[in-house]
C-alpha cells in the first residue's frame, strides 16, 4: 500500500505547521530585551520577527523530516503491522 499524493500532501502540511510553531521563538528579541520600544506598544512585542527566514527554515526542516519518514515507510520501518505491534494493538 503506497501513499496517495493527497495523503502525502496532508502529512507534509501538518508537519510543516508543527515545525513552524517550533521554529517561531528562535531568534526573536522583544522590545524590552532590545531596549528600544515604541511608545504605547507592549514591551514583549518582537522587534524583528524575521518571518522570511523562519518560513525558509520551516520548509527545509519539514522537507528533511518528511523525506526521512517517506524513506522509512518505503523501507518497511513504518508499516501498519509494525506500528500496531509497537503500540500493543491487535492487527
UniProtKB/TrEMBL annotation:
InterPro entries: DUF1467. The chain crosses the membrane at residues 7-28, 55-73. It comes from the Bacteria. The keyword Membrane applies. The keyword Transmembrane helix applies. Keywords: Membrane, Transmembrane, Transmembrane helix. It holds the Pfam family DUF1467. This is DUF1467 domain-containing protein. It comes from Bradyrhizobium valentinum.
